[in-house]
Q: What sequence folds into this?
């Protein structure tokens, strides 16, 4: 049997992370995967619908670290030449896929009243047969009228669950929420990119606001309408670590893949602010020389309370110090000559100083602005980074070990349910980003702080050594009511 990576209960589409090489990849061997499914009664799942999505993350050693971090390639070809993905199983409840190279696939099979969705590995050493046993579920199906027929996805929440999920339309145009227990309350919402007017004081939503799932083996169909809703005024206060009000910028942002769009921005001179937003809005809070914070508005709440920002450790602007050291290969300890070591001030994000290594791999940054710094070396296919504090008049010695970097996807799941969490923002060195793919070293961890609506923030340092199949999974814990 093909090894299952992790069972999942949704049909959410996953972006394909392909090879990050700028040149054409080498031809890969083709592997045939046979998918076979049976219904809950043990019968062949003849003509059941089939959906297959691919997930992969491969590094591109010939490119710079900055480019590796900023790129996220989609729609890489994982199918063999002249092959395609059938949209349904055949009369014997089977389908075959010709897959080029090694991939993790998400395979979903469904009938009108039963479904199953799993992740599998395909490639050298993996089995060539995937057998699925479908399970009866309650289904809620949503369809928009002709004016909104181009909408192919819809976000939703289940019961009091604070986590937003997203579903896509099947071939018949209906958006189906599968795998539900009888009596589950489904609260549909439009995708965040659709559910707001940037220049008006209203947003648009879905009517009915709640749908009740029926019994197992049934599908509840609802014709949905689009309605206009007023924005909510959200209030709060931004303070420093001592509780003093901070001059700050509060941005209502939405994310689309790796992109962040600012919908609305307000400024506060003394910390107190108010901003008009949609329910479940994401706010980015900024203040000079402080780490950014991410805040989520809660349903039926008009306040986010006190937002406390952490100040970067920045010495007097005139303070100077010295950083010197040696750059070595991690595998054999040999010094690396002719590479550039650079210093970035975390408080401002400015790259302040550069120095090239000599024949012994040594460098000397003197003098450079003091404070919290990140020292980095990028050789193209390998990297090293180290976070240090440099005081006024100090001299800091560092040993930078260069190791191959890997392009890693980071995904967040619910600690209790193991379900994927889609609306996650990472804060790295005080900067918030919705990116889920990062270039990480195998030996030098990078500190992350993860935020998601309804969950406690998680602080964790990660390296490429933590990844399995170029993926790291972090577990977030629900916030107590």
A:
């Amino acid at each position: 049997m093909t090894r299952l990576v992790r069972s999942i209960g949704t049909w959410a589409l996953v972006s394909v992370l392909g090879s990050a090489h700028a040149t054409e990849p080498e031809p890969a061997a083709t592997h045939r995967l046979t998918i076979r499914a049976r219904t809950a009664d043990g019968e062949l799942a003849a003509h059941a619908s089939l959906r297959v999505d691919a997930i992969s993350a491969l590094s591109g050693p010939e490119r710079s670290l900055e480019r590796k971090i900023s790129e996220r390639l989609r729609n890489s070809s994982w199918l063999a030449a002249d092959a395609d993905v059938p949209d349904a199983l055949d009369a014997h409840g089977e389908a075959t896929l010709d897959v080029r190279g090694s991939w993790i696939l998400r395979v979903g099979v469904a009938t009108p009243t039963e479904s199953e969705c799993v992740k599998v590995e395909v490639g050298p050493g993996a089995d060539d047969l995937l057998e699925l046993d479908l399970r009866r579920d309650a289904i809620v199906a949503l369809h928009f009228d002709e004016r909104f027929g181009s909408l192919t996805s819809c976000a939703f929440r289940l019961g009091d669950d604070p986590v937003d999920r997203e579903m896509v339309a099947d071939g018949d145009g209906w958006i189906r929420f599968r795998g539900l227990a009888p009596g589950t309350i489904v609260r549909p919402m439009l995708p965040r990119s659709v559910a707001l007017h940037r220049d008006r004081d209203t947003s648009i939503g879905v009517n009915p606001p709640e749908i009740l799932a029926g019994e197992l083996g049934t599908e509840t169909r609802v014709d949905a309408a689009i309605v206009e809703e007023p924005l909510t005024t959200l209030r709060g206060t931004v303070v420093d670590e001592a509780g003093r009000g901070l001059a700050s910028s509060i941005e209502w942002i939405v994310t689309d893949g790796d992109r962040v769009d600012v919908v609305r921005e307000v400024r506060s001179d003394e910390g107190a602010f108010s901003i008009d937003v949609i329910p479940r809005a994401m706010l980015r809070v900024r203040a000079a020389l402080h780490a950014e914070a991410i805040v989520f508005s809660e349903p039926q709440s008009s306040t986010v309370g006190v937002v406390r920002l952490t100040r970067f450790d920045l010495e007097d602007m005139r303070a100077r110090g010295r950083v010197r050291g040696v750059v070595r290969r991690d595998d054999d300890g040999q010094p690396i000559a002719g590479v550039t070591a650079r210093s970035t001030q975390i408080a401002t994000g400015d790259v302040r100083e550069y120095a090239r290594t000599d024949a012994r791999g040594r460098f000397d940054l003197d003098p450079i602005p003091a404070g919290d710094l990140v020292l980095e070396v990028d050789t193209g296919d390998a990297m090293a980074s180290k976070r240090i504090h440099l005081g006024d008049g100090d001299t800091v010695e560092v040993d930078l070990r260069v190791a191959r970097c890997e392009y890693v996807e980071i995904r967040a799941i619910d600690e209790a349910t193991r379900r994927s969490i889609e609306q996650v923002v990472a804060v790295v060195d005080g900067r918030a980003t919705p990116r889920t793919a990062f270039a990480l070293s195998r030996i030098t961890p990078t500190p992350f702080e993860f935020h998601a609506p309804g969950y406690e923030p998680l602080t964790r340092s990660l390296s490429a050594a933590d990844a399995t199949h170029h993926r790291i999974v972090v577990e977030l814990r629900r916030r107590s009511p």
The two ends are 43 Å apart (CA to CA). Residues 1-25, 57-76 have pLDDT under 50 and may be disordered.
